[in-house]
Structures are given as structure tokens and as C-alpha cells.
Amino acid sequence: MREVIFKNYTEKVINSIDKLELNDSLLYLDSILENSEVKDILNGGKSLEKTYKYLNEKLSFINKYKYGFYVEEIDNQDVIEGAKALITAKYFISKGINRGDVKEIIKGILILNYFELPFSQLIEIGDFTKEERRVLSIKLKEFLSALSIKISMPNDAPYNEKRYFEEYENGIGEKNMKKVYDFVEAIKRGRGYGLREVMRGLIKFISFINPILLKRTISERTDPLEILAIIEPLEDDEKLIMGLGEDIKNEWVLVGIIYQILDNNRNKRLGDNVLDAMRRILDQLWTINEELFFQCINYFGNYEDFNIILGRVLGRANRETILKYVNSYRISEYRGDLENDRLFIENFMNESGEENSLFLCSEMFQKWERYLKDFIKQNKYIQGPIYTNCFYIIVYYFLLRKNQQEDFLQELEKMVFEILEINYIWCESPIEIRARFFINLTYLYLLSIECRHKAYILATKEGLVSKLEIFFKDERIWLYYFNTLDKPSFLKEIEENFTLTNNG
Hints:
The protein has 27 helices and no strands. The chain is mostly helical. The protein is elongated, with a radius of gyration of 31 Å. The two termini are 58 Å apart.
């Protein structure tokens, strides 16, 4: 509700700008900041403190809309005062661009920040000459060259903090993403990147007036935290601009953009245009640093959107790269990543040809089989089918493989035999018996999906059909393995998959 009220208020303010004049009282910022250097303002000197105190007093009426202090309707006088404030902000910013004066622009930013509006709603770049923008860009370049946001560790810092920071620095040199981003996460949870609002506003302004300048500046930075601090104030589309293009050779810029956009949108799906731009950025990372690319897969693998763009990138890759992906994949028995697996393989197949899709699924299937053999040896108690986090890839292996119906039926007969004979083979413990049963049952489930998808006919194998029917009706299996007197839904699904092929 608060966001809606504030949005409605700012829209009314914007629509009223052309009808009013600036707020003379806000010109007092000239006096407050008269003797202050730009660097002193940005570093939070006393003049900035005094400025905020003055603006908080003059623009306090905005807070009731921004923070929702029981406001039901918008006061027209507040709209008028807001419009005058924005006109004054535009006056300062325009004056700064005309004169190449960064301090004037900062005055406008200090006012504009109260409204949380983009610069594009206040000024038009086309209203200023190329020469004015060129002169201003020189001044902005000087500011960016002097800008340093690096973190240093005090001599009296605790040992564990020093060690943590040392690992971060080592990670930069080693191109070790985990070392670097474990520290980044700690900083984010703690004090954050530490940029003042006025600094954030100036970075946004540079992105608006000369994105190429900001892009070049970011590309020259080597400290991942510094890169993250500079791009953090930007909107997603502005961040993407910083990372698009073959001229971007700084892997930490590419990783940082991917990280921030994924993290800022973890609770919603990115739009197709953003996903496509992210794909191009991830593809560029793969081109300039393949090792870091594969580290990203492990680090960002829990993000659904990352699996979408990863599928689109690897779908265009050669078999050597696909094999590296399979070899680096960490198979887990937990099914929490099933949706990520689905998104990856479906986007991979949309980009890849059928042969490469089968190649990926076949290689993953072989790795999956080895994983299951090792799983049996771990003597873990399990209560159901072994899906694993790569299960959708395994499903597509069965759907894509080129076997004939007779081959399928032989494989099915073998699997049914192994399931029915599970109690007659030697196992070290009842836990191992359960593991073997559910692994075989998982295979049977996969075969049932293949049977349904390819419309295989089982009617020619009466003995096989009979064994399956006996198995599905065996209440001892329901009770022993599923702890129920009713037919388990998983068995019902397998049965239905087979009976969908007109087996009666």
C-alpha cells in the first residue's frame, strides 16, 4: 500500500512540473555548500550533514507518502511543493551540465533522492550540446579516477577477520570465486558496501549521462568488492549495459553483474530480455575465463534464472565443454533442485541440436549410474525413489535414446526380474535391500515414462504383463517398503504409464 501511495504522489508531482516555478528556499543549498569541495561532500563532511538537516526540514511532507503515515488521499499543496522541489533539482542539474560543475549536479541529486525518481523523468540528454556533455565528462572522469571504495583491514582487527580478508585477497589472485564471494556475502550481511546516498546518486547520474564512461571505469577495476559497490546503485538494465559487449574482458565485472541481478530478483522470474542479456554476459565470461565460468555454475546453481541462462549458453557449446559440465556436476540425492534441473535441460534442448542433447543426457546418465552404485555402498536408509537433483536430465535420456521396442522390452523384463528377486539375493543388511529396491523401482519408473512417451506395446509379452500386474497388486510390497495398506501413488503412476499403451 505504501509503495502505491508514494508512486501515485510522485506521478502527480511529475505531471505538475510544467505549471510551476522552482522553490527559492532550496537555493539556500548554494550557501550551505559554498565552501565545500566535491570530495568533502561525497565523503560525508559537516556541510553534507547540514544540507540533509535543511532538506529534511523543507521536504518533510514527502515522508508521509513515502513511509505511509496513515495517508488516504494526496494533499494538493504537497504536490505543488513537491513539483517546485523537483524543478529546483532540475535547475541545479541543468546548471551543472551547462557549466561542467559536478557540485551543482550533486545539489540536484540531493533533492531528487527524496523522490526516488530516475533522471530520465527530469531531464533530456538531447537538451544539452555535445560540447557541454564532453566538458562534463572530463570532470566526471576525474571524479571516477579518484574514486576508491576498497576495504582495508585495521592492524588491531581480530585474527579471524584478518584471516577472512586474507582469503579474499588470495581469492582475487587465484580467481577463486568461493573465497571472494564468501567474503562479499559477509560484507553484505554486515555493513554493506558503504556508499552514501549522494555517492549512489552521482553514480546513477553518470550511468544516465555517459554510460560508456562508467562502463570503461568499472572495467578497469580489479577489486570485486569495489566493482560491486559501483554497480550496486544501478537498475538492472543499467547493470546489463555495463557487462554487454566483447570489449568487456574483466571477469569480475561479469560475475558481479550476474550476482547482483540474480540476488536482487531471487523472488521473481526475470523477463526474457533480461535473461537474453544475462545469457550473453555468461557467454562472454565463458569466452574469457572458462575456469571461473564453471565456478559460477557451482556458486549460482541454486538460482532458477541462472539455470535458464546456463542451459542457453551450454546449448550452444561443443561436446568438449558439455563433457566438462557433466564432469563438474555434483549429483545429490536431494530433490530440492529438481526445478532447476528442469529449467536447465529444457533451455539447453531449445538451443542445442538433438545429437548434443542426447550426448549430454547420455553422459549424465552414465555418471548417475555410477552415483547409484556408490550410493548402495553408503548403507543409507531411504524411504522412496532416488530422484536426485539431475533427474529431469535422466528422464530426457530415456526419451531421447534411439532404442527399439524389442530392446526396451528386454530391458524392462530384466528390471522386473531384479525387482521381484530382490529378497533372494545376498545383501549385507535390510537397509541395502531397501536401497536396491528403490533404485530398481526408480529405473522402472523411468522405463514407464519412456513406454508412455514412445507408445510401446506390452501386449506381446504376456508373461511380462502378468509379472507387472502381480507386482503392482502385492500388498506386502506396499506395507514393507511404503508402510501403507493402500496402493502407493508412485506405483499407481507407474502402472498408469504402462496401461496408457493399450495393454488392457
